Automatic annotation (TrEMBL):
Protein name, entry field: Protein kinase domain-containing protein
Start and end residues of each Protein kinase domain: 16-96
UniProt-recorded Gene Ontology molecular function terms: ATP binding; protein kinase activity
Annotated stretches, region: Disordered: 77-96
InterPro entries: Kinase-like_dom_sf, Prot_kinase_dom
Length: 96
């Protein structure tokens, strides 16, 4: 599994610092992270290099975020969808 970003302590664009790896699957890794703007702990799901290279994986990640964002419950935190993999300005393929 190839990771296109650094590990623990890495600062992501958008103001998130990776704290510790929380879990992983075939195409993504979930990290505990700090939202430096809002000063709170969050979970960040990052695609592996292999996952980011597959348009269908990126589309599934977006669909997953949309589904989670629709859930309303006192024990479910809010969800945001950040950035697409480097080199993509839209889902489904590379930018111009």
């Amino acid at each position: 599994m190839s990771l296109p970003w650094g590990g623990e302590g890495h600062l992501l664009a958008g103001g998130y610092r990776l704290l510790a790896r929380a879990g992983s699957g075939g195409m993504a890794v979930v990290w505990r992270a700090t939202d430096l703007v809002l000063d709170r702990e969050v979970a960040v799901k990052l695609l592996t290099a292999e996952g980011a290279a597959e348009a269908d994986v990126v589309q599934r990640l977006k669909a997953e975020a949309q589904t989670i964002a629709r859930l309303k419950h006192p024990h479910i935190t809010g969800t945001t969808f950040g950035q697409l993999p480097r080199g993509q300005d839209r889902l489904g393929g590379p930018g111009p």
